[in-house]
């Protein structure tokens, strides 16, 4: 099922309750609210495989400890969660302990979902119950020993996880608190954007400052002016989350998927709340580096490579083009501490997000066949130190890692 | 280059469904695309990396003849190295083993009739066959009419005279080889090799492009479109790049 | 025996400009639409990679994106007296292939035809008398310029055409084409920046009292977001338009203007690498049941559909009709038949001015970047004292400086050797060419039918093309060449070389991929194949969309009109046909 059809399914579920609930207005409201909770939590993002039935099990997730496959969460009794109780579900969402006491791996962001109030979890459960059961037996556990022992999670939970409901900050506005709740709670932004400890838990001191993610770099989303979203207005941040595109950049990779499946379907009020909250984090900028000199050999090579390969889209001065080519000048995306995403764009290419509001779906072509590791490194070094950008040089080793 | 296979955290709910009937029994169509704009990581089909050494089509005797021809069509001078020095013979050799040399994209069904010139080439012979037959016929003619020598052994002026007569169809090459048509093929392939991207074996160091002032595989002249009558300042670039990318030239 | 597939509301044959426009419109109307495309899927970043999209050998010389003759060619001859032989390689014209069709590798020159073009026959008879027609079999289209205005407007908005309007609501605008019909509003984008050659041409033409204006261009002058919300980029003048896919989303095509939205729709599907063999008719031959196609594995499928839209290249639309038995094949001996008549082409000529030191930088170019003079086009001028009708646009649109094909030398230069090299180096940046794109008017002897001898890879007859330039058109072209030479002579070069159009169409030299007619539109079911909404007279649930519908070809590029006709057909289907499916929209 494609996203558009999926949306229709969601809408149908929300607006036209199944026969079992027909006439039950309260129940219909619950399901509608639950459908929105599924959007906030982006359940489908992980629990749906490419081309597969929604919620019937997802694509494998590589973790530092091995590969996990998100299970089937349709109400199928044999292969889904059809034999779960509401209590089982509450427990899975807030404590990481599922049906029959099976411990979940924290790739399932239950530390975030634990911040959800119980009524919201119950609504979500009501919604999941309306999905057509799909028989799809997912072998969810493919971790190598010893990580394959799920009881290890008991220890992990002791070390890394204390279930805590969201605690509002009375000194902040209601909007800020809503944003903080969404970011820390169901939207689980930190799952990608917060660096992890050696045990795989969030490094709380570096919350949302950017993290490595399976061949991508999930960028800094604090208000840090050069690497975070500090230079974006609230409206620009909302536009990005709502459509995947704003005057600066175009979402791609995992964030494109999160936008298409989740944030683009959030209410403008919730997006505004997220933006308001994020813009109060930090700034955590380290001292801003000085750009490399134009005479640096990498800068000279990079300038030649840029004009021959990049300028026809991104512009001679990195200015980009409306809704189509991301600007590279004065770009926090370009200035991230880690250049993995940038190298990935050049070597492998990437398709931008598609949303109804911004349907263009432009793609970056793969240039890995043309540019060797040193050339990719040099052109990225050039971009990272031109037109208002300043960031560490990129090494051929960073590029080489992507090719393997 | 390998294809990264590690999955991303999320995948688009629906990427294109690419189904091949030949590999999935019971599926009703060659290739169906719906639900999303298809895109593939690492998608690129550049010209294959050229194997520079050795000959894939021409024999060493043919290489000698073709080199001698190409070096008269494009002689070395202040404007550029000679055709063979630019790799034109390598270019032709590689073309002969590809779709062009084998006419694999052309309509090759019979029957074959001689038509008007305006109806175009009407023969089952492929360019590879025509090169082979033409070079052999030329050497036979030279041996018979130039005291047993090979074409390459002729003096430059003699070579030019023979080539001009072949071009004009004044020489009967016999054996079903139309001299004028053979020369047209030779000239066509030589010019292709000289002016095409160096990725195909000819135009080494973009010599012909430098001669013309053609900047090559560029894609952005916005900075120069208004500068009427001024020479374009940047050097040419090939599909395979240019020396400045690696600091080999400043 | 073909396997039978689940039915669809609509099957579209060919996913180029017409197919994509109709698919978008009809899926918006809620119909379940399937496009079947003979060639492969293609898209910008995936297939027009900016690192090798500008490969002249591969795309311009070997023609990687085009239909290959091994897949389908046609036989050609200049008259019925000759034996037709297959074009073993394409040369004079180059049909497209694959998703996006010829719209992938077109130049982007986007014209509106004039009311006098749509009423060619009536206009000639009214202005000059019936005797002026001579042997010409030109016809009216059954539409007027006013009928077409809004469809043109929609296509121009879709594609982001860059240009200067010459006539907005009857007010002549400076800098535009004063001869064009009134348009409702300006072009969506301003004209492109000009290179030196067209400026020199325009200045000379203007000094001679002519009216040069920027060629309307689908190479965009600035970033643009079209009515579907799809963003396009600014053309960067790379000089790789014609025969190439655009690598930076700056040339309008189905890829850059429709597909990102169309492909997301749940009620749309495209099957690629699948060739439609014929339209299946019921025994009455007045109703189409669907189409039969073959996939890459050689398997044959019957795809039932309520509505069949032929949106292939015009010539292929005509052949599919013939192979399917839709209408009757035209016989010039009896002048009877509807399919295959009024095949027309384009009557082009050129002139080159050689300068000593102009530094024209021919590689800084785009497919539609240049200046046009329409003073001698169509019926913009009085033909009373002339021995022809029709005319030509004079276009100085230097599209490229790609060196395999473009290394001009003046006559008398050897074709090789040291002197040739010197001449090439001297003239590469100093040769300025412009050309006349002339009308091609129908005569009885120019027609399409099925070849009795040659077959395609599936054993079906190839189409046979019988064509030579009408004497009227040769006279027209000569007269326009006189005027081009006059312009060229005042441009200050050292030498003018004229390349005049001669009788005897030569299939071996590239001229134009503007093949028109064969399934022409009109109001007479005996003399046209489709009605003014592109609906088949004979099989009303078949529409045939493309330049195949042009009764004759004006002196302008066809794509703007092809796009407008697709919108017109879509409107007719949505607003009229769906209320009474299977019924003719026009009663003769």
From TrEMBL, chain A:
The keyword Nucleotide-binding does not apply. Binds 3 heme c groups covalently per subunit. Residues 1-22 form the signal peptide. Its main location: membrane. GO terms for molecular function: electron transfer activity; heme binding; iron ion binding; oxidoreductase activity, acting on CH-OH group of donors. Heme c 3 binds at residues 310, 313-314. InterPro entries: Cyt_c-like_dom, Cyt_c-like_dom_sf, Cytochrome_c-type_DH, Membr-bd_ADH_cyt_c. Residues 27-132, 174-282, 297-387 form the Cytochrome c domain. Keywords: Cell membrane, Heme, Iron, Membrane, Metal-binding, Repeat, Signal. Transmembrane segments: none annotated. Heme c 2 binds at residues 189, 192-193. Its cofactor is heme c. It is found in: Cell membrane. Heme c 1 binds at residues 43, 46-47. The keyword Transit peptide does not apply. One of its GO terms (cellular component) is plasma membrane. This is C-type cytochrome. It comes from Siculibacillus lacustris.
From TrEMBL, chain B:
Keywords: Signal. Pfam families: Gluconate_2-dh3 (PF13618). The keyword DNA repair does not apply. It comes from the Bacteria. Residues 1-30 form the signal peptide. The keyword Signal applies. InterPro entries: Gluconate_2DH_su3, TAT_signal. This is Gluconate 2-dehydrogenase subunit 3 family protein.
From TrEMBL, chain C:
GO terms for molecular function: flavin adenine dinucleotide binding; oxidoreductase activity, acting on CH-OH group of donors. Residues 233-344 form the Glucose-methanol-choline oxidoreductase N-terminal domain. Residues 447-566 form the Glucose-methanol-choline oxidoreductase C-terminal domain. Keywords: FAD, Flavoprotein, Oxidoreductase. Residues 169-188 are annotated as: Disordered. The keyword Oxidoreductase applies. The keyword Flavoprotein applies. Belongs to the GMC oxidoreductase family. PANTHER family: LONG-CHAIN-ALCOHOL OXIDASE. This is GMC family oxidoreductase. It comes from Siculibacillus lacustris. The lineage of its organism: Bacteria, Pseudomonadati, Pseudomonadota, Alphaproteobacteria, Hyphomicrobiales.
């Amino acid at each position: 099922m494609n996203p558009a059809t999926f949306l229709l399914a969601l809408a149908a579920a929300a607006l036209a309750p199944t026969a079992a609930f027909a006439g039950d207005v309260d129940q219909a409201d619950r399901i509608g609210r639950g459908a929105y909770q599924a959007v906030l939590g982006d359940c489908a993002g992980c629990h749906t495989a490419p081309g597969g039935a929604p919620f019937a099990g997802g694509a494998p997730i590589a973790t530092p400890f091995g590969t996990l496959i998100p299970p089937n969460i349709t109400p199928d009794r044999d292969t889904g969660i059809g034999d779960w109780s509401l209590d089982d579900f509450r427990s899975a969402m807030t404590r990481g302990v599922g049906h029959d006491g099976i411990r979940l791996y924290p790739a399932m962001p239950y530390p975030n979902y634990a911040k959800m109030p119980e009524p919201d979890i119950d609504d979500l459960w009501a919604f999941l119950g309306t999905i057509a059961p799909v028989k799809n037996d997912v072998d969810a556990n493919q971790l190598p020993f010893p990580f394959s022992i799920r009881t290890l999670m008991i220890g992990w939970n002791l070390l890394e996880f204390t279930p805590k409901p969201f605690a509002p900050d009375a000194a902040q506005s209601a909007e800020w608190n809503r944003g903080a709740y969404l970011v820390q709670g169901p939207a689980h932004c930190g799952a990608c954007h917060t660096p992890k400890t050696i045990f795989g838990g969030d490094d709380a001191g570096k919350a949302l400052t950017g993290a490595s993610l399976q061949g991508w770099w999930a960028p800094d989303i604090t208000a840090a002016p050069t690497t975070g979203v500090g230079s974006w207005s609230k409206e620009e941040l909302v536009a990005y989350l709502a459509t995947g595109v704003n005057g600066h950049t175009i979402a791609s990779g995992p964030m494109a998927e999160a936008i298409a499946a989740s944030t683009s379907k959030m209410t403008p009020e919730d997006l505004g709340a997220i933006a308001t909250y994020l813009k109060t984090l930090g700034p955590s900028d380290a001292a801003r580096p000085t750009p490399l000199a134009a005479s640096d050999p990498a800068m000279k090579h990079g300038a030649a490579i840029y004009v021959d390969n990049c300028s026809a889209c991104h512009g001679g001065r990195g200015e980009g083009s409306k809704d189509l080519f991301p600007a590279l000048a004065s770009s926090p995306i370009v200035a991230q501490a880690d250049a993995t995403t940038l190298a990935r764009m050049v070597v492998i290419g990437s398709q931008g997000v598609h949303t109804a509001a911004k349907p263009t779906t432009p793609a970056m072509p793969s240039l890995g066949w043309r540019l060797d590791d040193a050339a990719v490194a040099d052109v990225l070094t050039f971009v990272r130190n031109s037109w208002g950008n300043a960031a560490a040089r990129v090494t051929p080793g960073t590029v080489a890692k992507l090719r393997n | 280059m390998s294809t990264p296979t590690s999955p991303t955290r999320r995948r688009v709910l629906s990427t294109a469904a690419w189904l091949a009937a030949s590999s999935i029994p019971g599926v009703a169509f060659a290739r169906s695309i719906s639900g999303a704009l298809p895109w593939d990581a690492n998608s690129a089909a550049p010209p294959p990396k050229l194997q520079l050494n050795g000959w894939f089509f021409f024999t060493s005797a043919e290489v000698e003849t073709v080199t001698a021809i190409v070096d008269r069509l494009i002689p070395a001078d202040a404007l550029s190295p000679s055709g063979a020095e630019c790799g034109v013979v390598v270019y032709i050799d590689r073309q002969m083993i590809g779709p062009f040399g084998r006419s694999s994209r052309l309509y090759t069904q019979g029957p074959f009739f001689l038509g008007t010139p305006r109806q175009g080439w009407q023969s089952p012979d492929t360019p590879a066959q025509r090169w082979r037959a033409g070079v052999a016929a030329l050497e036979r003619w030279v041996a018979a009419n130039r005291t047993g020598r090979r074409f390459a052994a002729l003096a430059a002026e003699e070579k030019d005279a023979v080539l001009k007569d072949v071009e004009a169809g004044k020489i009967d090459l016999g054996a079903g080889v139309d001299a004028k048509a053979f020369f047209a093929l030779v000239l066509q392939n030589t010019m292709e090799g000289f002016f095409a991207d160096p990725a195909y074996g000819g135009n080494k160091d973009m010599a012909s492009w430098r001669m013309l002032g053609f900047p090559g595989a560029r894609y952005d002249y916005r900075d120069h479109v208004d500068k009427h009558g001024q020479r374009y300042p940047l050097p040419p670039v090939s599909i395979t790049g240019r020396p400045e990318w690696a600091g080999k030239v400043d | 025996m073909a396997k039978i597939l689940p039915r669809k509301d609509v099957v579209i044959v060919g996913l180029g400009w017409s197919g994509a426009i109709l698919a978008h419109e009809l899926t918006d109307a809620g119909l379940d639409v399937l496009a079947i495309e003979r060639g492969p899927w293609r898209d910008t970043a995936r297939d027009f990679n900016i690192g090798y999209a500008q490969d002249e050998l591969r795309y311009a010389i070997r023609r990687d994106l085009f239909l290959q003759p091994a897949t389908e060619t046609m036989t050609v001859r200049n008259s019925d007296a000759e034996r037709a032989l297959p074009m073993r390689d394409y040369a004079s014209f180059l049909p497209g292939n694959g998703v996006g069709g010829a719209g992938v590798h077109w130049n982007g020159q986007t014209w509106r035809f004039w009311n006098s073009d749509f009423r060619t026959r009536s206009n000639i008879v009214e202005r000059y008398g019936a005797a002026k027609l001579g042997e010409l079999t030109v016809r009216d289209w059954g539409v007027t310029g006013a009928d077409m205005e809004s469809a043109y407007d929609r296509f121009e908005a879709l594609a982001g055409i860059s240009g200067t309007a010459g006539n907005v609501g009857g007010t002549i605008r400076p800098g535009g084409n004063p001869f064009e019909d009134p348009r409702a509003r300006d072009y969506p984008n301003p004209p492109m920046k000009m290179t030196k050659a067209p400026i020199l041409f325009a200045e000379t033409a203007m000094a001679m009292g002519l009216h040069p204006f920027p060629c309307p261009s689908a190479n965009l002058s600035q970033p643009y977001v079209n009515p579907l919300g799809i963003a396009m980029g600014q053309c960067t003048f790379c000089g790789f338009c014609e025969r190439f896919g655009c690598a930076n989303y700056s040339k309008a095509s189905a890829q850059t203007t429709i597909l990102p939205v169309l492909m997301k729709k749940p009620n749309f599907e495209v099957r690629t690498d699948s060739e439609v063999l014929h339209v299946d008719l019921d025994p009455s031959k007045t109703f189409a049941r669907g189409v039969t196609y073959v996939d890459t594995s050689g398997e044959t499928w019957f795809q039932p559909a309520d509505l069949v839209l032929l949106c292939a290249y015009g010539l292929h639309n005509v052949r599919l009709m013939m192979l399917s038995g839709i209408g009757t094949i035209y016989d010039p001996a009896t002048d009877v038949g509807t399919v295959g008549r009024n095949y027309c082409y384009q009557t082009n000529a050129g002139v080159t001015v050689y300068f000593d030191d102009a530094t024209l930088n021919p590689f800084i170019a785009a497919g539609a970047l240049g200046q046009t003079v329409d003073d001698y086009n169509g019926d913009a001028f009085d033909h009373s004292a002339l021995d022809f009708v029709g005319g030509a646009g004079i276009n100085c649109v230097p599209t490229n400086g790609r060196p395999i094909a473009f290394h001009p030398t003046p006559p008398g230069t050897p074709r090789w050797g040291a002197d040739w090299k010197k001449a090439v180096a001297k003239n590469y940046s100093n040769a300025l060419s412009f050309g006349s794109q002339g009308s091609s008017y129908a005569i009885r002897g120019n027609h399409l039918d099925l070849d009795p001898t040659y077959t395609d890879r599936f054993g079906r007859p190839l189409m046979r093309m019988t064509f030579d330039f009408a004497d009227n058109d040769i006279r027209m072209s000569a007269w326009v060449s006189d005027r081009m030479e006059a312009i060229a002579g005042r441009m200050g070069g050292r030498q003018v070389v004229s390349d005049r159009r001669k009788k005897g169409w030569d299939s071996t030299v590239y001229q134009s991929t503007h093949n028109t007619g064969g399934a022409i539109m009109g109001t007479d079911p005996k003399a046209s194949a489709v009605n003014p909404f592109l609906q088949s007279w004979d099989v009303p649930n078949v529409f045939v969309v493309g330049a195949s519908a042009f009764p004759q070809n004006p002196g302008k590029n066809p794509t703007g009109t092809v796009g407008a006709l697709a919108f017109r057909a879509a409107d007719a289907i949505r607003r009229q046909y769906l209320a009474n499916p299977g019924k003719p929209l026009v009663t003769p």
